[in-house]
Specification:
Radius of gyration: 21 Å
CATH superfamily: HUPs
CATH topology: Rossmann fold
Structural class: alpha/beta
Helix content: 25-40%
Number of domains: 1
CATH architecture: 3-Layer(aba) Sandwich
Order of helices and strands: EEEHEHEHEHEEEEHEH
Bound molecules: adenosine monophosphate
Largest sheet: 9 strands, mixed
Strand content: 25-35%
CATH class: Alpha Beta
Number of helices: 6
Number of strands: 11
Distance between the termini: 55 Å
Amino acid sequence: MKVLVPVKRVLDYNLKVKVKSDQSGVDLSNLKMSMNPFCEIAVEEAVRLKEKGVVTEIVAVSIGPEQAQETIRTALAMGADRGILVKVDGDVEPLAVAKILKGIVEAEQPQLVVLGKQAIDDDSNQTGQMLAAILGWPQGTFAYKLDVGADKVTVTREVDGGLQTVDLQLPAIITTDLRLNEPRYASLPNIMKAKKKPIDVKAASDYGVDTTPRLKVLKVTEPPKRQGGVKVKTVAELVDKLKNEAGVL
Ligand code: AMP
């Protein structure tokens, strides 16, 4: 079974986001970029399926600038077999990503596409769902546990208030939630080996996709600064503040 894992290059999750002074977006200059954490979980799950003998080949795909090769190399060092970089400079919206992935799915014919549930930069949570819709494939989003059989996959999903289990006929789309697994760190020998694994470089036009944004960002602002805490002397004072200042009672 072949698995496709789309991996996005995003600002490292440990860094504090800074808004550009003209409020047109987030300042990414000279900052560390890494693989989106939910994509790491997707790669890890694919590698575990390969280790179990369920999966035979893992193809990591990234759509982004030249440097997104590094993100693909990380996936290769974790255990993916080969990569595809679709070079696009500037922002690519989920619909364009989904259309490009559809082209790759048609060329590669994977049985499973495992994406992150969301990219932590745009927080869209759309690509997996859009890809499932345009392919007409079943989708299991927010996966907490996967059980892959010969012609179906059982997905336990995180939903509000609990877990929901669904059976999907293969081929299918999965998006990963936080508790699906804990991604491994790539070992040094595997990082060295990954340098020799092949990465194909493509353009969005190879899949007939126009990546021109359809959305216009009007303004990006930082969240309001947190106010300092106060100590209250009595329960009555606490209740009063909750009622009259915080307005939560
Ligand atoms: P989003 O819908 O933007 O929140 O992203 C959800 C998931 O779609 C990510 O975790 C990736 O698996 C995939 N994805 C989104 N954008 C890209 C991209 N530019 N390159 C590769 N995968 C992507």
